[in-house]
């Protein structure tokens, strides 16, 4: 059995090494995406105008008036003092062709006091420019910038399958790391003084053993981040009842016209606080997202600047019918079946935010370890491959010499 496991570990590791190296390094960086993005682009995130900020709906109206081909798809309902109001936008449909207008941006930052634009960018663009660097790394981490063809997002599926192979390989690796009870100390040691191949081997084996639990958590959650609807929810539903995915609900009826969408947005925002209280949510409405084509608006409940959730299971969200205000779906941290809570925990676990600052540090460190394990695994394979080729080469050389001697005699 062990020779089979060694072979599986070798090929699983080689097959996923490049993907995990990229995912590990980018994951270590994007654990601090907001902080690094703000550090690199202060003019996009910081506003120095004194005074009370304009209402979020007024800022959205001004933005859409300045850019009539764009519709706001996400906006914060409040901002921290000294910060810009940053909205996501999408192209409207051209009434003549029913095709989306061409836009070269999808994120805009406004001064919340004056409404003046401070910056715009295409979030997730493949660019190493300062303004695009952190969103680029975030997109690279999840999609590898692979295309979507025939309705298949190849980047999401690739990283999801890599996660599944990695999870299986993680259990194989822990079995191989402890061949017997007598050698358990070796599986936890690092031969630093020996250096060279011995240290490379220990970094791979012992490094994986020390962080095995965290690595398994990251592997499981990486599957959830990419193939939640396709794989994780169906598997979890076998063991626990799941509420419908609130972020995939669609309201009945045709798409809203721009005028209807604006009116619905104003009504949803006006009623959001009362609806939240009826649902038992203590936090204030903090953000609004939705597309008029779906007839649904989502309201996130959190204080200004806490849109990612800094600890626990994240923020509460309610999905509402744009026409009626009816709550169509809800995700309230800690509420629901065991399966619902497991699903809620996936992003907080993957990002480390479930444990606050210490969790993010742990995830960032784990990302670096994943990259190291990928590199050391390839180095170990190369050394062993060379060692296997050397006897074969010597055998071929001896055979050739023998043949020549027999021919001479």
From TrEMBL:
Keywords: Membrane, Transmembrane, Transmembrane helix. The chain crosses the membrane at residues 12-32, 154-178, 209-229, 361-382. It comes from the Bacteria. The keyword Membrane applies. It holds the Pfam family PepSY_TM. This is Iron-regulated membrane protein.
